[in-house]
Hints:
The chain is of the alpha+beta class. The chain has helices at about 10-15, 50-60, 95-105, 110, and strands spanning about 20-25, 30-35, 35-40, 45-50, 60-70, 70-90, 120-130.
Amino acid sequence: MSIIPEHSLDLLQSTALAYMATIGPKGEPQVSAVWFTWDGTHLLFALNKKRQKYRNLLREPRVAIAIADPANPYRSLEIRGTVARIDGDPTYRFINAASQKYLNRDATSEETGPAEERVVIIVGPERVIPFPS
Length: 133
């Protein structure tokens, strides 16, 4: 059963970007906008292994994610959770699914990079704070 409130589920299906915060090597926060999908239980993110965010998650798997409604920025969702697992994406299946969601097309080779560098970060929500509640 999902801990996401019913009235916020539409945000997880929207093309809103997720702003994911991770903890850097010296304890500093690092935030960036990322594509995501929702499988009904977990948030999934496409990352490249060369990114700081990936290295941060290997060391410290806790994250905070903020998603604002593209139609109403005063409606948002904060999700705190932990990386449940990291899977490879050697066939670009996930990055292409995310690209279809956001761009209505598969990702280009310039966008994907080498297959061995692609991963899917799977995050299990542990605390959800909708705004307004």
